[in-house]
Amino acid sequence: MAITEGNHRAMHYNQDWMGYGFIGGIEAGAISALAGLLLFVVFHWVGRRHGWSYAPQIGWSFLLATIVTAGGDLSDLIYFNYAPLQSLPLLKAKLALVHDPDNIGLRVMSELIGVGLGIYAGWVLCSRNGRSANRDK
Description:
- This protein has one domain (19-132).
- It has 4 helices and no strands.
- The protein has helices at residues 21-50, 54-82, 88-96, 104-135.
- The longest helix has 32 residues, at 104-135.
- It is elongated, with a radius of gyration of 18 Å.
- The chain starts with 20 loop residues before the first helix and ends with a helix.
- Mean pLDDT is 83; it is low at 1-10 and 132-137.
């Protein structure tokens, strides 16, 4: 199914409850960090059973967490910067669909940093568990 003008917002999760500005960025980053952590734990579990190194575990976790949490804001950011401006009413209508369009760049940056921090936290937790299990042997 192709993404059309009418349903391009399907990529977003509900952001109506989120704050504006820096607070909204922190909230979006926290959601992304949690998603990155959970996805890394899942891919670490799968990877250990299939003999993967940390590289594919981190890579797949980062890709999927970014698509899930930052994909909508990132697509809006690219759209508003590179799409041809057809008319001022169309631009106003598109901006009305976006939560806090003034700080969308901050939110995207916070989401990407959050994904990275969540994956790092998962890596630290999983590495610590592996080291303590190896010491017992």
